[in-house]
User: What shape does this take?
Amino acid sequence: MRWFRPFPELDLAGKEVVVIDRDYSFGFGGVLAHSVMSKNLMEVFSVIAGLGGQEVTYDDIAGFVRHRHIGEEFWFGVNDRV
Assistant: This one.
């Protein structure tokens, strides 16, 4: 996405959506995921990935899609020791 204000009209009815965000607002969540959810009145699987320049491969993205849990948020590459 290059621009997302005003957020585009998307026909996502009945679809499971995975949103990969490279930014995060504490107390708000992934910015793009939140925009998709609020505009379309739906739950998504929000993945926070690529923070700090971390590489996210096509295989990683395929894994996000295969193992999605709609309504949840997943932090890729971040563990509790950081």
Summary: The chain is about 25% helix and 15% strand. Helices lie at 31-40, 58-66.
